[in-house]
Design goal:
47% helix, 2 domains, elongated, alpha/beta, 318 residues, 6 helices, 11 strands
């Protein structure tokens, strides 16, 4: 090989090496691009699958939510039809309300069995039942009526003067249960059996959220939310619990106060009239007549029993 040919051989070899290197780099880039494309495609498919799955889950939850609402609406309608027959204890409490309004000369609209569906965002809807709502231009009152027989203690601590009653209640509660504090109601009544002389006592303890006082306060908040959803400014609702059974022995605190609001507890027509008289005190905010009419129209749409007392109607409407 001549000395002149050697440089050309070196150049040729280098050229071949460069070409081979370029081909290798191109193949590597093509392979990486293919892998990247596959990764992107897989990621896009995963996103599509996730979106489809999310939409399916959301659609399923929406169907379940709609089904729950429809089921509750059906329950409300069935309950409204049943309550339209007006149980005897509600006739008694309604009668006492009408008599109290007549005695005080109050023009009032009394709605009985106000039943509606209460919906809270993200929670299962449930039925709210209000026994009585009294609407007057001087104020509004929500009544939780109880026809309990036997002995009732509402919000009054058991002391040494009631050792038997205190013992019965203590034995009816779980060992180590905390002392009862208001709001609470204890209902003691004979348990019905076929042989009367073998009858036992039934002791029911309703504390905190299950107490009649707390129930009526919750009803007030839910009714205000219902009216707000109908674009109606809710008036202030005074709340009360009325033990309407005249044969019961009821011991109760006159009021329960918390968070700046008062709930009245009553067990006689005289006490019911006293609370209604509070609505007539001078200086109270007057409720607009048009607001009362709009609220009454909503109650009629809920199939509540409507009773109008005074100049706007007759007691025969009750």
């Amino acid at each position: 090989m001549s000395a002149h040919a050697l440089p050309w051989l070196i150049v040729t070899a280098l050229s071949l090496i460069l070409v081979a290197g370029a081909l290798i780099v191109r193949r590597m880039r093509a392979r990486d691009a293919s892998r990247l494309s596959e990764t992107v495609s897989a990621h896009e498919r995963a996103l599509v699958d996730q979106r489809v799955e999310h939409e399916d889950v959301a659609a399923k939850r929406a169907r379940e939510h709609d089904a729950a609402i429809e089921a509750e609406r059906s329950r409300v309608e069935a309950l409204q039809l049943r309550l339209a027959q007006r149980p005897s204890w509600e006739r008694k409490s309604l009668h006492d309300l009408v008599k109290a309004c007549e005695s005080l000369g109050v023009d009032a609209v009394i709605a009985t069995n106000v039943v509606f569906l209460h919906e809270t965002s993200g929670k299962t809807p449930f039925v709210t039942e209000i026994d009585h709502v009294v609407l007057t231009e001087r104020g509004c009152l929500i009544i939780e009526s109880k026809n309990w027989s036997g002995a009732v203690v509402d919000g009054v601590p058991f002391n040494d003067s009631q050792p038997v009653l205190r013992s019965i209640v203590q034995q009816s509660r779980e060992r180590g249960a905390p002392t009862l504090t208001p709001p609470f109601a204890v209902h003691i009544s004979p348990r019905r059996t076929k042989e009367k002389h073998l009858g036992q006592l039934s002791v029911r303890i309703h504390s905190h959220d299950q107490s009649p006082v707390q129930q009526v306060r919750s009803q007030s908040r839910r009714l205000a939310a219902l009216l707000a959803s109908r674009k109606i400014a809710s008036p202030f609702f005074t709340t009360g619990v009325y033990y309407s059974n005249s044969t019961a022995t009821v011991t109760h605190a006159p009021t329960f106060e918390r968070d700046g609001s008062t709930t009245y507890v009553m067990s006689t027509p005289g006490e019911l009239e006293r609370v209604l008289r509070l609505l007539l005190k001078p200086g109270r905010n007057v409720v607009n007549r048009s607001e009362i009419e709009r609220i009454s129209e909503i109650f009629r749409g809920l199939h509540a029993d409507m009773c109008i007392v005074g100049s706007a109607g007759t007691v025969a409407d009750c």
